[in-house]
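Chain X:
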Amino acid sequence: MEDAKKMIHLEINCIAVEVPEGTTILEAARKVAIRIPTLCHHPDIKAWAACGICVVRNGNSPKLLRACCTEVAEGMHITTHDPDIVQIRKTVVELILSTHPNDCLRCPRSGNCELQRVAADFGIREVPFPRPAIDHIPRDTSTPSIVLEPDKCIKCGRCAIVCQEMQNVWALEFIGRGEKMTIAPAADVPLNDSPCIKCGQCSAHCPVGAIYEKDETAQAWNALRDPERFTVVQIAPAVRVALGEAFGMKPGELTTGKIYTALRRLGFEAVFDTNFSADLTIMEEGTEFVQRFTQGGELPLITSCCPSWTDWMEKYATDFIPNFSTAKSPQQMLGVMAKTYFAEKMGINPASMYVVSIMPCTAKKYEITRSDEMHASGYQDVDVVLTTRELARMIKIAGLDFATLPESEADSILGEYTGAGTLFGATGGVMEAALRSAYYLITKEELADVNFTQVRGLEGVKEAVIDIKGTKVSIAVAHQMGNVEQVLDAIREDRAAGRPPRWQFIEVMACRGGCIGGGGQPTLATDEIRKMRMEGLYKDDREKAIRCSHQNPQIAKIYADFLGSPCSEKAHHLLHTHYSAKPVYAK
């Protein structure tokens, strides 16, 4: 057992504080309800004191300390607010504002901007410094997912640190020096020509509107207004536990029924749920795993429902292409089923159908165009993807009081889901859902306890050995791209040594916490918020009468009526894809 940490005693604004050694002044202050302003600080990344507005004083020392990265010491007497400190902070904010575009009304972060909030806290209405002559840098709209607007960058560095250290992608870095410094891809190439995997974690961590999702709400509004269009919508698992945050509700609060109602009031003619197609994905992917596991196929099988992960793999880990599940993601499966099975059942011309996905992920915007196999029905599987944030804006534009909306149900034909389907939104959820059905597919018996708690939680890499009635299955779950290479390198070591792979089944999600922490979710997420969102999904799972994908009666019906059987020729044509190496410059 580790020794308990030494406790440090100090005073903050004359309040006695006791905290463990290694605590920063910023963290210690929060424990006694004192808020020190910050702009560059975020709990996900190591503090590096870029903005300078968190300065505090220790005793009578003339030297100011940056609270975000200075650890407490025994006997400190910290002053967090006095006239001099407040004036210094205000001046720093005014200097930032002097080079910042004054177009808040056109900014997607207006009303949810950290710079705006700090400026309001200091009562700044005018900037006393002249605006320097700085060359305008055009927006980078080269990717289908996110937009860079360098003129709004405040040089906090969050995006670069997240991209490099959390995600291990290295698409963004500091370019230039002094006033001309900005954040951009290396060599200042367009973002789409960089190693970017469109995960959107840069946008989720940006405190202002310098990086944001490509807004495609106009396309959705146009489709809703077009009398020739039959509009279909689906919502991803993680959306239901995060959308409410945009309307003052707690993270993790389940708003599924309210979302269905909101979508109908926006004008969508068919409201479906991606949880249904998550169940369908489990049938295809679970069958694929059982076939490989029992018949000697390529192992480990690696999940492929995260488009940022598949994009990364096609660039940096092409030796694992044979290990990837060929099953399409739930988003794509719902789209193709809407334009085939649903269209056939309802007598609707699929050419008139317009499928909108509400996703927690900016990379899903890229996924809908990644290959010709996303047109297996003869039409594009999904026509447009909106993030959770974009849906929130549409609901507000429509004047809907989301928090008081009544609840309703999804359209049953592609909307009925099990507890397993909803788990897809959290790290470990795909694995847990797959194991529930893999057990049945291997043993033809139902599990007494369907909870696989070994794969839950925010540990970067989780390992377990699952006993399927005497058959041992070794699994690994990795989330946050910076944690993935250690898993791949371990498999490479096994190959080089001529050993069987140490794991037979691996789940990978690019974002921390999985989709609940996706790049299109409400901003300012922390691990505390991620845990609350995850618990919302586990609550949804616990409350479902059916908790295993293979038990979903609508899934059984779609195979009986249309697909035949999991991994059948028809299912492969409509529900599967392939992967290939992509060129990218080296990290």
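Chain Y:
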Amino acid sequence: MAFLLGCEKVGVDFPTKTVFESVSLGVNEGDRIGIVGRNGDGKSTLLRLLSGLLIPDTGRVLKNGVVRVGVLGQADDLLETDSVCHAVVGDRPEYEWAGDARIRDIIAGLLSDIDWNVSVGTLSGGQRRRVDLARLLIGDWDILALDEPTNHLDVRAITWLAKHLKSRWREGAGALLVVTHDRWFLDEVCTSMWEVHDGQVEPFEGGFSAYIMARVERDRLAALAEQKRQNALRRELAWLSRGARARATKPKFHVAAAQALIADVPPLRNELELKRMAMARLGKQVVELKEVSVAFPTQDGQHLVLDDVNWIIGPGDRYGIVGANGVGKTTLLRIIEGALTPTCGTVKIGKTVRFAVLSQHLDDLVKFGDDRVRQVIGRYSRRTMLDGKEMTPGQLLERLGFTNADLNEPVCDLSGGQKRRLALMLILLDEPNVLVLDEPGNDLDTDMLAAVEDLLDFWPGTLLLVTHDRYLMERVTDHQFALIEGKLRHLPGGVDEYLALTESQGAAKAESVAPGARQLGSEGASAGQVNQDQPDQARKLSGGEIRSLRKLMESNERKMDTLQKKIEGVQAEMSAADPTDFAALSELQNQIESYQAEVDELELAWLEAAETLGE
């Protein structure tokens, strides 16, 4: 693999802290690297350093002279007066970019719902983000450096982006550096990880799952001072290994090894116990929606957001709501909590229900102004019960990653992630019995997301969650629902079922045509031509093919079990053999390696069959 980019003994100092100290690393062709770490440890700084936007204080950045690096920062440099068309494709002639199937696919994937001729200044923050991402992706880059690319994207757009990045370069070509808190995205597109901490960058082989496993093992052998961090990581690993994707994620991620590490980890949630506690606090009725519809007036008449929704939410239910941006998820939450009256239909809210809402904009923290965190928690004398333990406000803050130094910070000066954690803590101290979370993962790093998930696992009440982070969604909720064209639909198959539904609807309505392509006229491509240039969708398997694949999987499982027993038998022979008989020991070792090679080959075939079946 050819060297593309790197740094040698690099140091970066800011006025208040040392960010990096003597860091050396490299990026080669074919690398797909995810960058993780705590907020403020230097992930974005590392991207800027490698891409040439920041000059190090010591050391040097090394770059192959012909390498082209494309950078997506957290803030865009788009001109307010530019049209969307000009912001994305610039001054390139229409026939040039419209005739490129790759560019049309990017525009269709990210901008199909945005008017091609409106000015950038009229777009929302999420739309600007997608325009900036499309602008970058249509370029021809050797390396892409992406800082939080999934921000403001819905689940469907995130899935499209992951698919695009996986197929953008041929195998072994190009390189990707990505900073994101979206763990599903990291596991989907990355083959190695860099952890930024304490002024250093530590590499890990494999995606996010393998990274979590390696961190667990590292922390398991660390000092007792690291015990709290270890437990959080082992709980994270328990979710990864017990989830539906456990055996079908990556061939290199061996589930048997993971199961050994988590053998003594209890289940994530005791659902029956949590429901019993929830009923004691809530009674039998929580919220019931009957034939609820919501319509908002527009210039052309009425825009129907919710259409005849019927939904019963009971004590202890943990529901997740997915849907595209602007489809009405927040409206549905406001209806449920009684903050918005439906156009028609009825909403029944139980007499004992006490709502607590964590909004996207953290409006409840504004009232604290310059008050310091210590002053704010000092007003709460009550304790709260979590995981069967009574916790003070200070203990709860510590569990959410606040240090003693953070307690003296004014609330208005906290980072976005700190504000979100503080808001969640104050909500829990108010002891609600129905918790409504609207994008709670915004601004949180992966460690803090795991801490929040850990808290929510033991929260005894009804939980409603809206998030585009599919990992968080499937981690803390028991059932998922989709809001599609005003209708609420249960998703027994989780987020994957939602993606399949939206994909089939998009194909039926031909909504994936780029807005620019519709305007090409006689010189451009028609909608049919755009779709013909796209890769063919994977065809559906016949009943015979499904049976054949399942038979292959069952056969391989039996063969792997047989080979594993043979390996154990040979290992027993080695233990009983004469330790000085090197020839015999070498022969036995060769047998073990031969059996293990067969196991690896069978396991790979099993995984390929499972992936084909979508399991």
